[in-house]
Specification:
about 425 residues; 8-stranded mixed sheet; 6-stranded antiparallel beta barrel; about 25% strand; alpha/beta
Length: about 425
């Protein structure tokens, strides 16, 4: 999920057992003090800031911010290394994507060679340059999307079109051998693209799953919604349902959903609302948004927005009167998407992989969801990884955990009659 614009972040303790007053409590108190009335807020000078915050949450960015500086490219024969300004992203080991030239250029950046805290620089290996002239790059953005398309990973694929509201949404189709009855439908996060899901294709193929890497409304590939606004999962799930319908029409009998960040919220809504929900065998969610109230409170604090203002920004998203200010065609019901409160209602086996060092979607709700519904939810914590970059920090562990868990979920089910005969 791409970050909201922010200023000078302050650390936030969002673990499930953190001491002191929780963000949710602070917002609830702020709402009580404010009188709980949207009209009351609009009479104050804080309304403009609340509107700005609410609109930032649901408005797709036209262009990613080039907030990462590249200082130099060093060539040694065929080997290349790049010097980057040291940031919270570039000083975490692993493999990443670096996009530059407005996204036209894409390089795969590998391990840290050296780090100079005094000079605030880091030297890293350049593993591949897929497009663009990296030597001319000065600024760009850091990404968990390492590869540009399945071909870059050496995986054959097809470009297919899925019928959705207002047109067709492109998807990458990666076929497993034989005639697989289980397909994986993979859903990227807010501000990302289907490239984000490429990391899961290899494990899916090893398990014999055909993969469908989808696009959805307002992501820059699929048709935009009428209002051009994110529904935070409340509307996008219909495009995932359309992808499931495509899979079922082309040989699938059951589905595994993969989701990253807001894509996780979309998967949860799909498993709750889709007419095909009974065919969803399992879900694998990476740094998912399981409670939007918690995430929005976290971002209000990151942006140093007063809790009362942030609380009313949230209220605008769900209040019918707020539509005039946010541009939403319909209110977004954040309570319906609070899966921590609705934990016992989740009846689809779910694996959650989430870093305790996630700076944009706090891991606390993920851990709490697993604690409240251990029968259905397995929580796998990672460390050091920033948002949706668990795979980037430790791809071997990420893939092995996903494969081991899915093998258990996809194992043939014995019917009671077969089980009885085995015990005689």
């Amino acid at each position: 999920m791409a970050p909201f614009q922010r200023t000078s972040p302050a650390p936030v303790n969002s673990s499930p057992d953190s001491g002191g007053m929780s963000l949710r409590t602070k917002w609830a108190i702020g709402g009580a003090i404010g009188g709980g009335s949207l009209a009351g807020l609009l009479a104050t000078g804080s309304s403009a800031l609340a509107v700005y915050f609410a609109r930032r949450v649901i408005t797709p960015a036209r262009q990613r911010a080039a907030d990462q500086e590249m200082l130099a490219l060093i060539r040694d024969g065929h080997r290349q290394q790049a010097i980057f300004a040291a940031t919270d992203d570039t000083t975490v080991d692993g493999v990443y994507g670096f996009f530059f030239d407005g996204g036209k250029g894409h390089a795969r950046i590998g391990r840290i060679v050296s780090y100079s805290p005094a000079e605030r620089t880091v030297l890293r290996e350049v593993e591949a340059v897929y497009s663009g002239d990296l030597s001319a790059a000065r600024r760009g953005w850091w990404s968990g999307a390492v590869h540009p398309d399945p071909a870059a990973v050496g995986i054959p694929h097809e470009e297919v079109m899925i019928d959705v509201d207002r047109g067709q949404a492109p998807a990458w189709l990666v076929r497993a051998g034989g005639t697989p009855r289980t397909w994986a439908v993979m859903v990227h996060g807010r501000g990302a693209t289907r490239q984000e899901a490429l990391r899961a294709v290899g494990p899916a193929l090893e398990l014999g799953l055909t993969s469908l890497l989808v696009s959805y409304r307002n992501d820059g590939l699929a048709p935009s919604a009428d209002d051009g606004r994110y529904g935070l999962g409340s509307t996008e799930w219909r495009d995932v349902e359309a992808a499931m319908e495509y899979a079922l029409a082309n040989g699938a009998e059951e589905i595994v959903l993969f989701g990253w960040s807001m894509g996780g919220a979309i998967c949860l809504q799909t498993a709750d609302l889709s007419r095909y929900r009974h065919l969803i065998r399992a879900m694998v969610l990476d740094a998912p948004v399981t409670d939007w109230v918690n995430v929005l409170a976290h971002h209000a604090q990151l942006n140093r927005i007063p809790s009362l203002v942030g609380r009313y920004g949230q209220l605008m998203l769900g209040h019918p009167l707020g539509r005039r200010l946010t541009g939403l065609s319909a209110p977004v019901d954040l309570k319906v998407m609070d899966w921590v409160s609705r934990a016992v209602e989740l009846r689809t086996p779910t694996l959650i992989l989430h870093s305790v060092d996630d700076e944009y979607v706090p891991y606390g709700p993920s851990a709490l969801l697993a604690e409240r519904n251990p029968e259905m939810v397995t929580f796998e914590p990672f460390h050091q990884a920033r948002h949706t970059k668990e795979w980037n920090v430790d791809p071997e562990r990420w893939e092995s955990r996903v494969k081991a868990w899915l093998r258990q979920q996809l194992a043939p089910r014995l019917n009671p009659g077969a089980l009885s005969s085995m015990t005689l």
